[in-house]
Amino acid sequence: MASEDFKTVVKRVNVVKQRRLRVGIVGLIVLLGVAVYSLGYQQGFDDRVPLVLDEAGLKESISKLETRLAVNTETLNRFRVELAESEKQVDELEKELVFYRDIMSSSEDVSAVKLRPPDLSWDPARRELEYRLVVQRLAPGSQFYRGQLTIQLIDSEGSVIRSSSAAPRHDLAFKYFQRISGTIALADTIIPAAVRFDIELSSPRKRRYEQTFDWSTSIVYSTQ
Question: CA angle, corner 103, sides to 102 and 105, nearest 5?
Answer without folding.
Answer: 60
